[in-house]
Specification:
Layout: E1 10-11, E2 25-26, E3 43-48, H1 58-65, E4 70-76, E5 91-93, H2 100-109, H3 114-128, E6 132-136, H4 138-151, E7 155-158, H5 162-165, H6 171-183, E8 186-189, H7 192-200, E9 208-210, E10 231-236, H8 245-254, E11 261-266, H9 272-281, E12 288-292, H10 296-305, E13 308-311, H11 327-335, E14 339-342, H12 347-350, E15 356-359, H13 364-376, H14 381-395, H15 398-417
Parallel strand pairs: 1-2, 3-4, 3-6, 4-5, 6-7, 7-8, 8-9, 10-11, 10-13, 11-12, 13-14, 14-15
Length: 422
């Protein structure tokens, strides 16, 4: 499909750069795939996220790939990430293009290019002419709502985490988010806890909908637990305070040393050096493997060979939190791993109480107790595994949840056309 609209430029990868003075509207046809275009679509949805796409945000691509009634296209200002994550046959790259108005605006917007982004969104809406614009994260929503409102395009904004926890701690961003709540057609949260936070920030309850995080179940096949002589505990995350990797290390150090268990850590981040030092200080460095970043295929293989998954999320001193819950908890339950986690944010919403053992935030003693119990009772693992898999199949399967999302798109279109109210 070609971008539509007067004055738009579409540049394929085998051509020279964009036309001078125009936005660069690119369609990525890098492998000839057309698998993300549903036949007989009821409408076109333009997903907006920049950059597209961080390795930790594949849940957005999962959503895009699941569409049935809506034809997905992508708006971004920058493509980033490994091939297969960033690539999409219908990607429109509109680099922010500052003009003199935007240059002046930067002085008082305290922005990350908000004025420039708004100009780019306006151009994208004119070129693509979507039926719905779906902004992922608050910053995209803030850039999108004025041009979307002027173009009479329904705007859906999904909040995910830091944009509902850390970002609103800054007055300027809190005010922008409140204006966004008035400008968006509907606002999505992945669970009841995040919904409550958005209400507390000023979102009208009538505009809020819960849209759970979804995963592609076929990518995470179930396997029955097979306890071995040495249990493997797995955590996969960015090494930042809210992920609680230091709590994992302290819990492992406190757990019963008579139980043989190794910890494998997938990820990287600013806390890595401190965490490696902490492991040495606790005397457990020989039981821990820091694996660094891994591809999603490698991560899936690690899940398939682990015995227990742990994720003790908490609020960082900066205020940053999960907002909802880590997608890794769904993936771990899908493959059949018992889970140890915390009651942070929407983690109780995405885990089944008989598949996961949850501790209060920051409670190392409780985390260690949960590890001890699971390691001492491997006979419980199969039952917990089957319950966890069934929970994810019923509540978080992308093929099921896309129907719910596309119904929300229909609702937003009725609201904008005058057939409903938010």
């Amino acid at each position: 499909m070609s971008a539509r609209g007067e004055g738009s430029t579409r540049t394929r990868p085998d051509r020279d750069g964009p036309t001078p003075g125009r936005h660069d509207v690119k369609a990525s046809h890098l492998d000839g795939r057309d698998d993300l275009r549903p036949a007989g679509a009821d409408g076109r949805v333009l997903h907006y996220r920049s950059p597209f796409l961080a390795e930790s945000e594949t849940f957005i691509r999962t959503l895009i790939a699941a569409h049935v009634r809506y034809e997905p296209e992508i708006l971004t200002h920058e493509q980033r990430g490994a091939p297969g994550i960033r690539d999409h046959d219908h990607t429109h790259v509109f680099p922010p293009s500052p003009g003199w108005v935007a240059t002046l605006a930067r002085r008082w917007l305290v922005s990350r290019g908000i004025a420039e982004r708004r100009r780019a969104v306006k151009s994208a809406l004119a070129a693509v002419r979507p039926d719905v614009l779906h902004a992922h994260f608050a910053e995209e929503g803030i850039a999108a709502w004025p041009p979307a409102r002027r173009a009479k395009v329904p705007l859906i904004v999904t909040f995910y985490g830091y944009d509902a926890t850390e970002l609103p701690r800054h007055l300027a961003w809190r005010l922008r988010i409140r204006r966004l709540f008035q400008g968006a057609t509907l606002v999505l949260a992945e669970g009841p806890h995040l919904r409550g936070r958005l209400e507390a920030l000023g979102c009208p309850p009538g505009r809020l909908r819960v849209q759970p995080i979804a995963i592609q179940l076929e990518r995470f096949p179930y396997r029955e637990p097979r306890p071995g002589p040495e249990a493997v505990i797995l955590q996969a995350c960015r090494f930042v305070p809210k992920k609680g990797v230091d709590l994992t290390l302290r819990a492992l150090a406190r757990a019963d040393r008579r139980t043989s268990a190794r910890l494998r850590l997938i990820g990287d981040g600013p806390e890595r050096a401190r965490l490696e030092a902490l492991a040495a200080e606790l005397g457990i460095a020989d039981r821990i493997q820091f694996l660094g970043m891994r591809t999603h295929e490698e991560y899936a293989r690690e899940l398939a060979t682990a015995d227990i998954f742990i994720q003790p999320s908490r609020y960082a001193a900066s205020g940053d939190g999960e907002g909802g819950a880590p997608t890794t908890l769904l993936e771990a339950q899908a493959v059949g791993l018992p889970v140890v986690a915390t009651t942070h944010a929407d983690i109780p919403f995405v885990t089944h109480p008989e598949a996961a053992r949850l501790a209060p935030e920051e409670d190392v003693r409780a985390l260690a107790g949960h590890l001890d119990h699971l390691l001492a009772h491997p006979e419980e693992w199969p039952g917990r595994a089957r319950i966890g898999r069934r929970h994810v199949e019923e509540q978080h399967d992308a093929k099921v949840l896309v129907d719910r999302l596309e119904d929300i798109y229909d609702e937003a279109r009725r609201i904008v056309s005058g057939g409903g109210e938010s």
